[in-house]
Amino acid sequence: MRVVVVGAGIVGLSAAYALRGTGASVRCVDAGEPMAGRSAGETRIFRTAHGDAALVAEARRASELWDEWSFRAGRTLVGAGGTIVSGPRVPAWAAAMAEAGAVHRVVRGVLHDAAGGVLDLAGAGAFLREAVLPERRAVEGVAADGTVRYADGGRDAADAVVVAAGVGTPALVAPLDIDVPEALSHHARFAFEGPADGPCHLDGRPDGPLASTYQHRTGSGHWAVGGHLPDEDTAWELGADEVARRSREAVVDHVRRHLPRLDPTPVAELRCVSGRGLGDGVHRARSGVVHAVWGDNLAKLAPRIGEVLAADVSGDTPVAAGG
């Protein structure tokens, strides 16, 4: 079987890696650099904690696969330390974890996810790039019969196509009547100097203009802090610079008031693009032999998404990872 994977972010590389494990001949292409776009940056938060028991189960399977990848890569891809969750979502998330049989505890209203930790996204990308060998090539269009048209005039005739192209996915699959939301927003997180220890933390309590915040260690030995602003402050039309300015102002104020162990002057920032209103979860659709996948916060589930897509393409589809 010949498969073309469009997109060399963490999800596309994961799909290509899993597909090669089935014996398929896989070409992975991207118009830009691998692990750019939504997969940029050194680290992410890994958690099994979710508000839906099915997603908790998917994250638990992803945790097993991250362990397998760590062994093959010769480096720890999800660090120990755990993830804690605070705020109004704790009861629902704890109930979902209990339903899924996931190890957790709630202490003084804080949910402790022992399987969580810092995801070494840069290390995972290096491991996958070496295994997959993605090509830099822009795709102009895909057809339901597996034809892939490249911007340079070339074509591929594939038995299956996986489109995991992030912000490029809606335009590529719209002609196939696959409706992927196109509304985008900007986001920025910031790194601060100070003790880079302790568990990852997702806090659902609002603080000033921030609806929620998150924090975790970075690969550079700093502490990353981000927050979620109202939609009007992250709108695509504002531009990345203005959204970063508004985000910086709110996050620095949060750090000054709540994280005194950190120097409140940012030493780095990471900008990314997200789909508006997608939240947790994975979305998949198919037209002919073209399989599309999209969503937000997908890095933590990437090995599992790749596993499910590979099974889907090969005809052994499990009911999981977005259905």
From TrEMBL:
Keywords: FAD, Flavoprotein, Oxidoreductase. The keyword Ubl conjugation does not apply. Gene3D superfamilies: D-Amino Acid Oxidase, subunit A, domain 2, FAD/NAD(P)-binding domain. It comes from the Bacteria. Residues 2-310 form the FAD dependent oxidoreductase domain. It holds the Pfam family DAO. InterPro entries: FAD-dep_OxRdtase, FAD/NAD-bd_sf, MTOX. Its cofactor is FAD. PANTHER family: FAD DEPENDENT OXIDOREDUCTASE DOMAIN-CONTAINING PROTEIN (PTHR10961:SF7), PEROXISOMAL SARCOSINE OXIDASE (PTHR10961). This is FAD-dependent oxidoreductase.
